[in-house]
Amino acid sequence: MSETQIRFSGSGGQGLQLAAKILAAGLALEDRSISMSQSYEPTSRGGLSRCDLVVGNSTGYPLVTGIDYLVILDQVAVENSVGLIKDGSTVIIDRERVDSPPTGSYTMISLALIQAAREIGNVRTANVISLGVMVGLSDICSQKSMQQAIRDTVPARFVDLNLEALERGYALVTAEKDKG
Questions:
Q1: Which domains does the chain have, with CATH numbers?
Q2: Could you tell me whether strands 85-94 and 107-111 are parallel, antiparallel, or unpaired per DSSP bridges?
Q3: In sequence order, what are the residues at sequence separation of 6 or more whose Cβ sits closer than 8 angstroms to the Cβ of residue 31?
Q4: DSSP-assigned letter for residue 121
Q5: Residue 109 pLDDT > 70, yes or no?
Q6: DSSP character string of 99-116
Q7: pLDDT at 44 over 70
Q8: Which residues pair with 72 in a beta bridge?
Q9: Is this prediction's pTM over 0.85?
């Protein structure tokens, strides 16, 4: 398999580092090679935050140079990724918090991710919902591995909530495919 480059981006406090950590754990269960890097501004909430994964059979360079899958949960993160989005990539945005998405020759999926998180009772699960959407669209990792990664990664009291969020993300993908 060729290399796949993924970025989760938004503002501090949205759980982007956790989403990437869960994905990395799921990929590791499938014996995939993963490099992960992260960046965030010194403010704990509201500043730019991103986490990148480079996935392949063996990864050489650990930083993204051409994003294949981009998740943007806040407008503050749009500019930071513009020059790295490859033609043909998939960009997933939250339609409530991203009102000026990047433009280019890629597939843009605009979903109510934060609203879906509110509907399951915790706005902080938008990160895992977006993870479910990204994995559902990419098939980069099996649902079984992602479920196990959540069990292995998040505190026990939040496992069920995060499993529900992951499933909500997969359901959004199914609804999106049914529309088109």
A1: 4-179 (3.40.920.10)
A2: parallel
A3: none
A4: T
A5: yes
A6: SS---SSSEEEEE-HHHH
A7: no
A8: 9, 93
A9: yes
